[in-house]
Specification:
Layout lengths: L10 E4 L2 E4 L3 E2 L6 E2 L7 E4 L2 E4 L3 E2 L5 E2 L3 E2 L5 E2 L6 E3 L5 E3 L11
Antiparallel strand pairs: 1-2, 3-4, 5-6, 7-8, 9-10, 11-12
Length: 102
């Protein structure tokens, strides 16, 4: 049986072994810190779980179809328009009015 020595802020020791603090994962090991960031990701046993509009290991890249500094501008191309680098809808047929989304 391995002795458990509490580490302040990370975990306490109980009969079953390490009990992780609220921001440390995975259970029983407690060696990965994850502090949820509102609007970007939550934390689960495996680490960060990105919100739908973010992706990547650290949830720091916009998901496909999302643009802007906070990845909150959605744009999904259709047969009538494509999306600019900033997420603006750009009509394929210039005669169409972009405000009507082509």
């Amino acid at each position: 049986n391995v002795e458990c020595i509490p580490e302040e802020g990370k975990y306490t020791c109980e009969e079953g072994g390490k009990k992780c603090s609220a921001t440390y994962y995975p259970a029983g090991i407690c060696n990965v810190e994850c502090i949820p960031e509102e609007g970007k990701y939550t934390c689960e046993e495996g680490g960060k779980k990105c919100h739908y509009n973010w992706q990547g290991e650290d949830c720091n890249t916009c998901s496909k179809g999302y643009f802007g500094e906070q990845c909150q501008t959605p744009c999904f191309p259709t047969e009538n328009y494509y999306c600019s680098e900033t997420g603006e809808k750009v009509c394929i047929d210039e005669r169409n009015n972009p405000k009507n989304y082509c």
